[in-house]
Amino acid sequence: MNIRKNDIIEVITGKDKGKRGKVLEVIPSRNRIRVEGVMLVKKHQKPRQNGEIGTIIEKPSTIHISNVAFFDSETSTRTKVSYKLLEGKKVRYSHKLNKEL
Fold it and tell me: Based on the structure, what is the number of domains in the chain?
């Protein structure tokens, strides 16, 4: 997977199209990621002790990796990311910007 934890991404399809956020978790086995503030779902939480009341919590759900693109905050553009060998070392490389990430 070309997107890693703590990268900034932009959603390119779906109900959250155009939103940007930081990657919280990457799940390579399912090709999914969890992004801060994107794909929020409501979870109903039961009371755990007597006298407590139940609450509804909004938390980010996973989104498929094909629905997001890497966002470069320096140039404010989204770009494709791949790996390239530079001087015998494998590095992440931006196609649109022609630079190492």
Answer: 1
The verdict on residue 58 lying in a domain is yes
Tens of pLDDT, residues 8-66:
999 999 899 999 999 999 999 999 999 999 999 999 999 988 889 999 999 999 999 99
Give the CATH number of the domain where residue 63 resides: 2.30.30.30
Residue 91, token pair as written in the block: 């590095």
Residue 27: inside a domain, yes or no?
yes
DSSP-derived secondary structure letter, 38:
S
Reference 36, options 26, 24, 19, 28; nearest CA is: 24
Q: Looking at the whole model, is its pTM more than 0.90? A: no
- Residues sharing a CB contact under 8 Å with residue 71, sequence separation 6 or more, in sequence order: 8, 9, 10, 20, 77, 78
- 66, 8 in Cβ contact below 8 A? no
Residue 88 corresponds to which amino acid? G
Is 3 contained in some domain? no
